[in-house]
Amino acid sequence: MIHWHSDSRELLASNHDHHLASLAACGIVLALLDAALPSPLPGIKPGLANIVTLYALARLGWRAAVWVSLLRILGAGLLLGSLFTPGFWLSLAGGGGSLLLLALAQWLPRRGFSVISYSLLAACGHLGGQLLLARGWLIPHQGVWLLLPPLLTAATVTGLLNGLFTLQLLESATDET
């Protein structure tokens, strides 16, 4: 939590704040890398920045994951020059859908679920948020749902790969402590 120092106008940030900022910065770098990668089909990207959100969720909890995700979306939008463009709103809708499913997943039994399960849920939530916004605003036509099979396949593959990578990160971070 950020506090004002009583003797001056200096803003003091906690270690938790620094950790969130570091994770958000990593997420922004991964989002920039993601944007630079060629896409086989419009709308299909690996979602590398979601690894950082999953890491924040596992290590710091849902609220931290929300902050990291929102800061990453805003920061990437600023750096890519896409702030408040349709691409920004699609990213925000995807992030919101992902975070919504991750919030609901907290109520699921812990047994049988791992960061890989959460990654798959987040990928599907991301896709759902983006498709709902696209259908409601950008492409107000039923034909948008024809994109669902290839996009859902891509979301499943990338969600699985990102989940596996996040699991490796979490295990290596646990080994270091």
TrEMBL record:
Pfam families: Hpre_diP_synt_I. Signal peptide: none annotated. Keywords: Membrane, Transmembrane, Transmembrane helix. Gene3D superfamilies: 1.10.1760.20. InterPro entries: Hpre_diP_synt_I, Hpre_diP_synth_I. The chain crosses the membrane at residues 20-39, 87-108, 115-138, 144-165. The keyword Transmembrane helix applies. The keyword Lyase does not apply. This is Gx transporter family protein. The lineage of its organism: Bacteria, Pseudomonadati, Pseudomonadota, Betaproteobacteria, Neisseriales.
